Amino acid sequence: MKEKADLSTLSLAILGLISQRPLTGYDLRKIFLTTPMGHFSSSPGAIYPALKRIEETGWIRCDNSEGRTRRQRMVYKITARGRNALKEHLSQPVTEEDVIWHMDDLMMRFAFMDGAVGPEKTVRFLRDFAARIDAHVVDLRRYFESARSILPVCGRLAMEQGIQSYEMNAQWARRAIQELRS
Amino acid sequence: MKEKADLSTLSLAILGLISQRPLTGYDLRKIFLTTPMGHFSSSPGAIYPALKRIEETGWIRCDNSEGRTRRQRMVYKITARGRNALKEHLSQPVTEEDVIWHMDDLMMRFAFMDGAVGPEKTVRFLRDFAARIDAHVVDLRRYFESARSILPVCGRLAMEQGIQSYEMNAQWARRAIQELRS
DNA sequence: GTCCGCATGTAAGGCGTTACATGATTAA
DNA sequence: TTAATCATGTAACGCCTTACATGCGGAC
User: Fold this and answer.
1) Which of A85, B40, B103, B146 has minimal CB crowding within 10 Å?
2) How far is it, in rounded angstroms, from Cα B46 to Cα B159?
3) CA closest to D19 C1', residue
C-alpha cells in the first residue's frame, strides 16, 4: 500500500530544492514558509532531521567553503550520487497507487524535472499520469453510478468533487504536454 | 501549524461512517478497500487502534446485542456524545490553514454533513470554503506573478495546476450550494 | 480435512508535529 | 543594550505503515 520506497515527500522537496542550488536548513524553512511549497510541512523538527538523513544517505553534503561565513551556516549541496538518485526517483513510472495515494508526490516529482531529466521523460511522465488518471476515473465513475442512489447528498457531491479533480488533473497534464512541445 | 485538535482524518472517517450505521472494524476495512473512501488509509494496524481510541473517548460503543452473532464481531455504534462531537467538529469554521493543509479533511467533513448538521450549516460551510479558497488563490496568484520569470518550466506548470485545483474546488462549492438549495 | 474468507489484533519502526532550547549577529 | 532575526537543533508524542499472529466458520 505504499512502496514509495525511499524518499518521503518532504525529503523529495528538500532534495529537489537543493538540486537547484545549495541551501541551508534555514533557507528551506523560509521557502516552505513563504512560498506555495509550504504545502509540504514546515519546521525545524522536520527539516533538520530530514537533512541529516539525506546527508547520511550520501545524497547531499555540507559544504562551508565559499568565503567568509561569519555565521554558523550549514550549506548543503547535492552530490553526484544524490543527483542520480533524484533522477532515478523522478523517472519512476506512474502507478495507479501513486494516483490514488500520492498525488502530492507526483506533482512534486514533476515540479523538479526541469534540470534533472530530459524533456522526453517529462512528457512521458505527463502522458502516463494522464492515462493512469483516466483509468482511475473509469473505476470511480463505475462505483459512482452503482452507489449514486444510496449515497447521501453530501456524499454524492463530495464524490463528484473527487472525480472532477482527477479529470482536471488529466486535462492539465495534456495541456502541459502541448506547452512543453513548444 | 496544525490545530486540527482531536480527530485525525482517519478517525473522522470512521466516526462519520459509524454515525450513518453501526459497523465492525472489518466492515470499515472493506469500505476503505472497495470504495473511494480508500483514499484514507486502510488496514488493521490503523483501524483497530483508531476504533479503540474513539471508544475510549466515549464517542462509539461496542454493542453486540442484535441476535445471534455466531462470530466474534465487535459492532460499534455511535453514542449521543459521539454524535455531538461529530456535529461540533463538522460545524467548525473553515480556516485558511484548513484550505492549505487539510483539504482532505475539509472534504471529509462535508461528506458527512448529511445526517449530522442542518442544510443551513452545510451551505454556510460551502460558502466559507469557497471564500477561503478565493482568498488563498489571490495570494497564490500574487506569488506566482512575482516568481513566474524565475520559475523553471515544470515548477511553473505545477504551480498552475495547484491554482487551478483550488479554483475548481471553489467552483464546485458554488455549484453544490445551488444543488442543495433545490 | 483442508483451504479460503471472516475477523481482530499486536509489535516495531518511521516520520512529522509541537514545543522547547540555545546561541550568534545586526539594527535601534 | 535590548530586541529582532539568523540559525540549528532536541525531546516527547501521536499516528500511520508494514508485517506478523491468531483463531473461527463455511465450502468443497
Assistant:
1) B146
2) 33
3) B45
Query: A71 CA to C26 C1', in Å?
Result: 12
Distance CA(A105)–CA(A171), nearest Å, equals 18
Candidate from A100, A154, A169 with C-beta closest to B161: A169
- The letter for the amino acid at B92 is Q
- pLDDT, residue A40, reads 78
Per-residue confidence (pLDDT) for residue B39, from 0 to 100 = 81
User: A9-28: per-residue pLDDT in tens?
Assistant: 999 999 999 999 999 999 99
Chain A 55-114 residues in 7 Å CB range of strand C: 70-72
State pLDDT tens for residues B98-130. 999 899 999 999 999 998 999 999 999 999 999
| A111/B168 touch (CB, cutoff 8 Å), yes or no | no
Tell me if A1 and B172 make a contact (CB, 8 A cut-off): no
pTM: 0.92
* Residue B100 CB in 7 A reach of strand C: no
* Rounded Cα gap, residues B144 and B88, in angstroms: 37
As a whole number of angstroms, the distance between CA B83 and CA B87 comes to: 6
CA–CA separation, A127 and A105 (whole Å): 17
